[in-house]
Write a structure and sequence with these properties.
The structure holds two protein chains of two kinds. Chain A contains 13 helices and two strands. Chain A is mainly alpha-helical. The longest helix of chain A has about 40 residues. Chain B has a single domain, classed as P-loop containing nucleotide triphosphate hydrolases (Rossmann fold, 3-Layer(aba) Sandwich). In chain B, about 45% of the residues lie in helices and about 25% in strands. In chain B, the strands form two sheets. A six-stranded mixed sheet of chain B has the order 6-7-8-3-9-10, with helices on both faces. In chain B, a hairpin with a 2-residue loop joins strand 9 and strand 10. Classes of the chains: A mainly alpha, B alpha/beta. At the A-B interface, helix 8 and helix 9 of A face helix 4, helix 5 and helix 8 of B. Chain B: Keywords: ATP-binding, Nucleotide-binding, Phosphate transport, Transport.
Chain lengths: ~325, ~300
Amino acid sequence: MNTPESTADLNDRVRSILAADRRSLRGVRIREIGVYAVLVLCGVFSLLITIAIVGVLLTETLNFFRSDEVTLSNFLGSGQWTPLLGSTKSFGIWALISGTMLVTVIAMAIALPLGLITAVYLSEYAPRKVRAVLKPVLEVLAGVPTVVYGFFALVTITPFLQWLHGGFNVFNATSGGIAVGILCLPTVCSLAEDALQAVPSSLRDGAYGLGGTRFDATVKVILPAALSGIISAFLLAIARAIGETMIVAIACGSRPQVTGDPRDEIQTMTGFMVQMAGGDVSNFGIEYYSMYAVAFTLFMITLSLTMIGNVVRRRYREAYE
Amino acid sequence: MVPRINSMNTVTKANTVTSKNTVTTEKEAFAGSPTIQTATPTEISQEQFALEILNLDSWYGDFQALHGVTIKIPRNQVTAFIGPSGCGKSTLLRWCNRMNDTIAIARASGTLRMGDTDLLSKSIDVVDLRRRVGIVFQKANPFPKSIFDNVAFGPRLHMKANRSELADLVEWSLRKAALWDEVKDRLNKPALGLSGGQQQRLCIARAIAVGPEVLLMDEPCSALDPASTLAIEDLMDELRTQYTIVIVTHNMQQASRCSDKTAFFFEGKVVEYGPTDRIFTNPENKQTEDYVSGRFG
């Protein structure tokens, strides 16, 4: 093999390979510019869409407030939401915010503890085989269309609640809240699990090496270390619950009112918008513009939650390196 | 708190000594001869072993990492494990406080004894074992908590110490780890703000705060600069009077500088084990000689 001739042959062949034509520099440059342009266009496209949506929301909301029939103090200071009642129209957003809050609180009472506990189990306790089954199953939950959750709430959860306690309305906040909670469960679980998994295993070793049990390591080291990720998971889940539409439109009813009674029919901000957009309201009246005012309020709430989530994640993130 | 730990150690030692004496006295009374009072040399040396490893085999799944390892680790001395990467020295170290339990596929057979305690027994309380046998890892791994809370972590798990006892214990441990003067004014600051060498000394303080008898060190200086390495080596020199130290190192100068005994590992076997001086100046085995003189590995 290593005879002088064969080595010389190889050297000759390599020399001719190296001497051959390279790819055209001009072609390379054009391709790089093309790729760059496509990437920039895609980025700009999503940016423009966002700006357009916010722009439409903002102008139509301004139109709403320019009307004689509505004042900012009525909008922000009242709990009466009766946009369709001819002479006694009132636009008190608190009726809708209250409905949204009620559903969100119920949903989070289910999704946050269950999601976090499941995440801790998956990340710290579950044997690999259990984890391999449980995680995909949870992710399937996130893929179920929300309309399915909606009628599941209406035809299964509500009758069950009524069987437990006679006072539940056919449409009620609890039923929708439970369904939204189930919907948010995989979000909380998967994001919180990511946060737990991101804690370096050297910290687990440290806790075990000092004689800590699995529970000690989880509660005293891993959970505190993952806290920022867990909080931002919670905030994202809350934003998701506040914005959830189909379930509450189907299961919670359409009576806007300020109430703390979870057995009662309510209407959420999203529920109202669906009712408006799906109904036969003309597209210039005050009730039409009220839809945009509600949408803008909702947008501001979810936007601030997302931003708080980002701040929390950045500020409390532990740098391990 | 601090005196209590010391006295605890003393009591244990005193107990063993007493029982030994009692045995001797009984024998003496039985035989009626004063000559038995002098213990045989083997008895004395057995008494001085902190860890006895006899014919230990270890596997990760199908891969056998250790082949019939036999080492007796003397009490209150520094024992160094050297050898090329993957030779099983860390594996052995991690059996000494059962850190390998965290690896599902790891198993071992043979004998690993600490006094009368069988460390490989299924029924052993690993929580208590890890209190008695502390470990310091290759990469400093302080918890994302304050300096104080890092050192107090172990005591809070194992003892019902009140606030002032905890403070005493933290100060004592940080002094032992030669870190007190540098951090005494910022005990409530995050431990992650310390330099790499300080973090590693903090981890040593954290390990000794629970009053271990043995301190395992898995390449504690491999990520440190020469100055911090020197600080840790000085520290080991001071700690050896109270603790049995087992150190895994890739740095042969380090092993020759700071250990009393050295074991050379190769491919899961102990090639040679003996006093550090002899291993480095006059090894019996050709492989050992090649390795310590830097000709391979």
